[in-house]
Design goal:
Chain lengths: 296, 422
């Protein structure tokens, strides 16, 4: 009895100001994200083109979706791309973060330099790299006589995806780098000193101290990274436009094509499936890494 | 996903903002004046139409016209607040609005009788609404092969009239060390607009082909009466040969690169429409340029020009100022105004007994327009949910145009299965 009263009293003590902070955001989020999403999901069950009359179709858009090779290809490309890019970007970001938190020369300056890509808009970065890949790189390759790169990789269906990995990684490494830097500075230095006295090599220190203690940061970076890469759009538009052929068409690009192509309802079905896929991947990541992080 | 929703959300907000800024189209209280919203978003002629609208306001006191030049056409219809008069490219996108009956009938306007019938019929090739003339063609753009007259003269090359002459011209240019054709694969629309449309148009009439294809719907296949695989086989052989004469780095070049390179005289021919001419003139205003229709058969009589209705006028049924809107349409359709617009903007008049286009760069196509020896590009009949331009990119690289045609048949069947071919 007293326990319950205590509990209730504690619950009542929640600062009302928190709700004041929460409610506007919640209202805006509901009005501009949740309700439109629900409307979109509803229209995915119809033949709506964006205006005028429509009729209810049930699940036939979904059935058509799963037999459409172009849609399936875009999922294959997007998932593969996200996987490769997250590995590449996280590895480089972690390596850079470790290097930059050591007492090396110009660490502060370098940290600032490395963060620059983050503040430049994706489409601008993509166009700049487009020029490098189309003109500079082939020119250099021709000058030094390196055959494979004399033709731009953007025009090669087997290699074009690499350009998107490179640019996406280049653009997202700084964000991950910042998170890792924060994680690394939170590790007390005496752990390293103690282990050094016990004769641990730097590699052993990295494996047994650094990685377990920043596992939470790795998790958050990977989830945010994968989520971001799954929605890849602007970088592709600026680099390859989804080509050559449809080799680099991402799911987001096929969805967006539906708005201009009169395929609104069909691509809404695609968007709904994509939402579920993205959510499932995030949940799977959280479950797979749950409890792995070590607390000091 | 959330970023995309956010972008879509912001786009919607911006669209609402723009609409909010535009004066309301409801009758304003003061003076009983009426405000019309005129939708026209072709960048190059926005200022031109602004001037026409001011002229109209002077001639017709009591009506104010606001020029809406937002890029996307869909939002105004989605909100059910379309402009009172629209002036837009007549293409598959507009066809969706025609087919669903949201554009009113203009057949009883006096100016409707002044439009050339053979041009008026072009709009029906995309879509019709029973008993209605939904669009009045305003401006006809004609396209062919743009060529550098100086290079042709220096190597004493004739303007080709048959397919084999065309191939000879290309071969001679190659042996003279000149790039015969400049292509810009990176902007995939340039591939279907030029290579695809020109290769098909003079061999297979796109209007009839796609009408049959729509009737067949899900039955399209290798054994059906018409199909991409069967009917476009010869045209795509031509396309394959033509693509072998492209500049070496065509795969990574974009439209702007093409205009620059052609303007600098780096290639003899360019498969583009009149819209490129003003861009090329920025590079070299004195470049001597001509245009010819691409010959794809051995009979010179088969040659036709690719045309499109660059602008057409329409009045949405949802407009609350039908009478005033019709007055504006009648004003714009006046022969002195319409003919002047087309003469000034490298296009052809859509009216009967119109004066010819005087620009020397386009003179080579006048005869085709006069004889109605023209077609609307096959690529313009392909819904954008079939990435034709991207398919062409692959086909040019691999040389497998047949595979692309089979893919088009399969895509068409799928689209027809969910009735999304228009």
């Amino acid at each position: 009895m007293t326990d319950t009263t205590m509990y209730q009293r504690t619950r009542r003590r929640v600062e009302p100001l928190y709700y004041v902070f929460l409610i506007p955001t919640l209202l805006i989020f509901t009005a501009f994200v949740i309700i439109p999403a629900l409307i979109g999901i509803f229209y995915s069950l119809t033949d709506y083109v964006g205006f005028g009359d429509w009729s209810f179709l049930g699940l036939s858009n979904y059935a058509a979706l799963f037999s459409d090779p172009r849609i399936l290809q875009s999922y294959g490309f997007t998932l593969g791309f996200a996987l490769v890019t997250v590995v590449v970007a996280q590895t480089i970001a972690l390596a850079l973060a470790v290097a930059l938190t050591r007492r090396i020369r110009f660490a502060t300056t370098l940290r600032t330099v490395f963060v620059i890509p983050m503040v430049v808009s994706g489409i601008v970065v993509a166009y700049v790299f487009n020029f490098l890949f189309s003109n500079s790189l082939p020119a250099i390759a021709t000058a030094v006589g390196f055959g494979p790169l004399e033709e731009s990789i953007l025009g090669n269906p087997d290699l074009a995806w690499l350009s998107i990995v490179i640019v996406s990684a280049w653009q997202t490494i700084p964000g991950a780098l910042l998170v890792y830097t924060a994680g690394l500075t939170s590790i007390p230095n005496d752990l390293y000193e103690a282990s050094a006295l016990d004769g641990a090599t730097p590699w052993r220190q990295f494996r047994s101290i650094t990685v377990p203690l920043i596992a939470g940061f790795i998790l958050i970076n990977t989830i945010l990274g994968v989520k971001g890469y799954l929605g890849v759009y602007d970088v592709i538009v600026g680099l390859t436009g989804g080509g050559p052929g449809t080799a680099t068409s991402s799911v987001a690009m096929t969805i967006f094509g539906g708005f201009t192509g009169g395929d609104y309802a069909y691509q809404m079905a695609n968007a709904t499936v994509f939402l579920i896929v993205t959510a499932l991947i995030s949940v799977a990541q959280i479950v797979a890494t749950r409890g792995r992080a070590v607390q000091l | 996903m959330s970023r995309r929703s956010f972008l879509a959300g912001s786009a919607a907000l911006v669209a609402l903002g723009v609409a909010g800024c535009a004066p309301s189209s409801s009758p304003s209280g003061g003076g009983g004046g009426v405000t019309l919203r005129f939708y026209e978003q072709k960048q190059e002629v926005i200022a031109y139409f602004d001037e026409l609208l001011r002229r109209f306001e002077k001639e017709r006191p009591g009506i104010t016209v606001v020029h809406d030049s937002t890029v996307a056409i869909a939002p105004q219809f989605v909100r059910n607040e379309p402009a009172d008069v629209g002036c837009f490219n007549d293409n598959l996108e507009l066809a969706r609005y025609i087919k669903r009956g949201v554009l009113g009938d203009l057949s009883d306007l006096p100016s409707a009788q002044t439009v050339r019938t053979d041009i008026g019929e072009l709009t029906d090739q995309y879509a019709t609404y029973p008993g209605r003339t939904s669009v009045l063609p305003y401006s006809l753009a004609a396209a062919g092969v743009i060529y550098n007259k100086r290079i042709f003269a220096e190597h004493e090359l004739p303007v080709p009239e048959t397919w084999s002459q065309f191939v000879d011209v290309c071969d001679e240019l190659v042996s003279a060390g000149i790039t015969p054709i400049y292509a810009t694969d990176r902007d995939t629309w340039t591939l279907w607009q030029g290579l695809f449309d020109y290769s098909v148009g003079s061999l297979v009439a796109p209007g009839e082909f796609f009408a049959r294809l729509k009737e067949l719907g899900t039955d399209v296949g290798p054994d059906s009466e018409v199909s991409f695989e069967k009917d476009f086989a010869v045209p795509m052989e031509r396309a394959k040969t033509i693509s072998s004469y492209f500049n070496k780095d065509h795969a990574v070049r974009a439209y702007a690169d093409g205009n620059l390179a052609f303007g600098k005289g780096e290639a003899a021919m360019y498969l583009q429409g009149p819209w490129a001419l003003s861009q090329i003139a920025l590079v070299d205003p004195d470049l001597e340029i001509g245009t010819f229709a691409l010959p794809v058969s051995e009979n010179p009589e088969d040659r036709q020009a690719r045309v499109n209705i660059d602008l057409g006028l329409w009045i949405p049924t949802a407009s609350t100022h039908q009478d005033e809107a019709r007055e504006l349409v009648e004003f714009l359709m006046r022969p002195d105004i319409l003919n002047a617009y087309n003469a000034d903007n490298l296009a052809y008049s859509t009216l009967k007994d119109a004066p010819p286009q005087q620009d020397e760069r386009l003179a080579g196509l006048q005869d085709y327009v006069d004889r109605a020896a023209f077609y609307q590009g096959a690529g313009t009949f392909v819904p954008t949910s079939i990435p034709l331009g991207n398919y062409l990119q692959s086909a040019i690289r691999s040389g497998n145009f047949q595979g692309m045609l089979r893919q088009l048949d399969a895509d068409w069947r799928r689209l027809a299965g969910r009735e999304a071919t228009v």
